[in-house]
Amino acid sequence: MANDALVTNGHPHPGHGVNGATSAIGITTHGSNWYWAVTAVMAAATFVFIGLSFTKSRSHRIFHYITAAITMVAAIAYFTMASDLGQTPIPVEFERGGRFVDSRVANTNREIFYVRYIDWTITTPLLLLDLLLTAGLPWPTIFYTILIDEIMVVTGLVGALVQSSYKWGYFAFGCAAFLWVAYTVVFSARRYASVLGSDISRTYALCGSWTIFLWFLYPIAWGLCEGGNVISPDSEGIFYGILDLMAKPVFGALLLWGHRNIEPSRLGLHVRDYNEHPGHVGEKNLAGHHGEHSALNDGIASNGGTTTTVTPGTTSV
């Protein structure tokens, strides 16, 4: 069956008309086909992650739910882009021309997929939530990191919608926000994860380094696509699509594999099931803390000295 999404939605190439303007620099059927392929992978990953959640008790599914939500939102966003919707034409700052320039970017208006940024506004905080909960980071730090992440995404969107060189000011704001997020993930959160056990530390190190490595490539893609108008929208779709596939389904698989034998309570997460008495979780936690304090006292007595310990599953501000 032929892909007629571009024609069906009233945007026959090369004139993609939206908001009273046309974007001559837009995706072709090849680009749309790629977006459909990514949509299928994101949707399949969502069903797999949800299916895996049923192998856990209801109080142990938090990471499955968060991870499935990431790919579900991404699937909807890629469905929209495959349909050539969720975009608007923006005059480019750099009008490319010449014999060594890709003819597909040699025009004035380029389509910008704002739906991509709506996706990132939802999914990047969820990605960070997956990571920072794994590290046992304090909630105030998690919330603040997510706020900085939102600034990173929103400034990227505003920059993409600006025609003049002022777009690079927003790009700089976004990069500064990203560096703050990267510092939190690479240094601050890693210190918290390191005291929760070798399995938690190993899972966090793998998923955290994977995420930050990939996120470093997104500003490069932005500079070549929305910012500099260097590569075509079809190539833009491939660049961002590969990054999103690595940062969402592959990340999710790595994270859930790492969590397969990790109890949420070790991370300071205590989720009550509907058939569990509200005080039961608190009693279990209290008993656990008494056991930890008893073990600590025994260790001090046997060593005849003092020791410093960090109790797994607890966080401080």
The proportion of strand residues reads: 5-15%
Helix content: 55-70%
The outline comes out as: globular
The largest sheet is:
2 strands, antiparallel
Cα end-to-end separation:
57 Å
Structural class: mainly alpha
Tally of separate helices = 9
Description:
The chain is mainly alpha-helical. The protein is 65% helix and 5% strand. The strands form two sheets. The protein has a two-stranded antiparallel sheet. A two-stranded antiparallel sheet has the order 3-4. The longest helix is centred in the last third of the chain and has 30 residues, at 198-227. The protein is globular. Mean pLDDT is 85; it is low at 286-297 and 299-317.
Q: How is this structure best summarized?
A:
The protein is mainly alpha-helical and 317 residues long. It is built from nine helices and four strands, in the order αββααββαααααα.
